[in-house]
Write a structure and sequence with these properties.
Elements: H1 14-24, E1 33-35, H2 37-43, E2 46-50, H3 61-70, H4 74-79, E3 81-84, H5 88-99, E4 104-108, H6 114-122, E5 126-129, H7 134-148, E6 151-152, H8 159-175, E7 181-185, H9 190-202, E8 207-213, H10 218-224, H11 246-255, E9 258-262, H12 264-278, H13 288-295, H14 297-300, E10 304-308, H15 316-329, E11 333-341, H16 346-356, E12 360-367, E13 377-385, H17 389-401, E14 405-408
Parallel strand pairs: 2-10, 3-4, 3-6, 4-5, 7-8, 7-10, 8-9
Antiparallel strand pairs: 1-2, 11-13, 11-14, 12-13
Helix pairs in contact: 1-8, 1-9, 3-5, 3-8, 5-6, 8-9, 9-11, 12-13, 12-15
Pfam families: PALP
GO molecular function, one term: threonine deaminase activity
InterPro entries: ACT_dom, ACT_ThrD-II-like, Ser/Thr_Dehydratase, Thr_deHydtase_catblc, TrpB-like_PALP, TrpB-like_PALP_sf
Length: about 425
């Protein structure tokens, strides 16, 4: 039977965040907080974006890591630090440890993409590949910390880290003092804990909304007293945390007005919108706030809302895939599946319909063997590009009208 942890939770206050701000402000990028005119029109609210994806390592995680490092005494600095991470915490810690001449070791799961491994190594850290997932990497990191006498710097279960993350709120409210609400992504809860503590001290009436990926609703379940299942491949891997800490949960419980859940299609759409409208690259977690805002327009109508674009580390191939999928959902790209007779002129007659509707054909795929059609039948998939959904719908309607069996291959929600 596991013994329950009854140790008191660390104390944490706005003073901790203010002290962190004074400590790190000259060592991190003072990222801009800017109004988005187009997103404001789309949302029916005044939308202000905090561009934390413009930090050197493209994420706010630098703030908490740096604050924790600066608070270490010289003996612990000399011995070095360690963390388990496959993402932004790894890079933020490695980068700032290098700048402070502190040896850093990062334990990464063996499943970590090599691009992230090399980026972290490039900041001077020793990389240890261990465990098939974060929990196993974390256990290995704790063992290494004990063996080598290293200080473990947790990504969120640490008041020094949360204080550093909270400096984001101080900067936002310095730039736009009359914000009505902050919408903040929640994974382990360090960012929300720090920001909410600072924001409510500055403005007790400001509303605090948290956002989680629907596949990882761990804090949502804890705050609302619900049994939830967390797991799956989410675009927002930066907030894909199964077990948030008691420390952050207690602070979030005190400050949060609500936690909203967003689906994968919403996250993909928000990533695409930020690139198209703001010309800025964000990862899935960084787009979570916008996804929640656009998915709940009635709730936020007329408010002055601050969103944190908390990170911009997204694989370029994945980003390309997200953009193409968004075009497909909007009706500008499509794959149409038709049943044809395997005879001369069959495809030509179909292509004529595309030409008449001015829909551009990108690729054509024929399948004659692996179908449930008769031997003289075939399945043809045509990938195409339209101006908008109405143009595509007109093509499909006319193809069906002249006798073709046509259906659109849909994307998953």
């Amino acid at each position: 039977m596991t013994k329950e942890n009854t140790a008191p939770l660390p104390t944490f206050s706005h003073d901790d965040v203010k002290a962190a701000h004074a400590r790190i402000r000259d060592r991190v990028v003072q990222t801009p907080t800017l109004k988005s005119i187009t997103l404001s029109e789309m949302a029916g609210a005044e939308v202000y974006l905090k561009f934390e994806n413009l930090q050197f390592t493209a994420a706010y995680k630098e703030r908490g890591a740096l604050n924790a490092l600066l608070l270490m005494d010289q003996d612990k600095r000399a011995a070095g630090v360690i963390a388990a991470s496959a993402g932004n915490h790894a890079q933020g810690l490695a980068y700032n440890a290098k700048n402070l001449n502190i040896p850093a070791t990062i334990v990464m799961p063996t499943t970590t993409p090599m691009v992230k491994v090399e980026q972290t190594r490039g900041h001077g850290a020793e990389i240890v590949m261990a465990g098939g997932n974060y929990d196993e990497a974390y256990s290995n990191a704790l063992e290494l910390a004990a063996q080598r006498g290293l200080t473990y710097i947790h990504a969120f279960d640490d008041p020094r880290v949360a204080a550093g993350q909270g400096t984001v709120a101080i900067e936002m409210l310095e730039a736009v003092p009359d914000l009505n609400r902050l919408i903040i992504p929640i994974g382990g809860g360090g960012l929300f804990s720090g920001m909410a503590t600072a924001a409510h001290a500055i403005n007790p009436n400001i509303k605090m909304t948290g956002v989680q990926a629907a596949l990882y609703p761990s804090m949502y379940g804890r705050i609302n007293g619900k049994e939830v299942t967390a797991g799956g491949d989410t675009l927002a891997e930066g907030i894909a945390v199964r077990n948030p800490s008691e420390f952050t949960a207690a602070i979030i419980q005190k400050h949060v007005d609500e936690i909203l859940l967003v689906g994968e299609a919403q996250l993909e759409g928000a990533v695409s919108l930020l690139l198209q409208i703001e010309k800025t690259v964000v990862e899935g977690a960084g787009a979570a706030g916008l996804a929640a805002l656009l998915g709940n327009k009635d709730k936020f109508a007329g408010e002055k809302v601050g969103l944190v674009l908390c990170g911009g580390n997204i694989d370029t191939r994945l980003l390309a895939n997200v953009l193409l999928r968004d075009l497909a959902r909007s009706g500008r790209l499509a794959r149409l599946r038709l049943h044809l007779r395997d005879q001369p002129g069959a495809l030509y007659n179909v292509v004529k319909q595309f030409a008449e509707h001015e829909v551009n054909i990108i690729e054509v795929y024929h399948q004659r063997v692996f179908t449930n059609l008769p031997a003289k039948g075939l399945i043809t998939d045509i990938e195409c590009e339209a101006k908008d959904k109405a143009q595509l719908d007109g093509l499909i309607a006319d193809l069906n009208k002249v006798g073709y069996d046509v259906r659109q291959v849909e994307l998953a929600d």
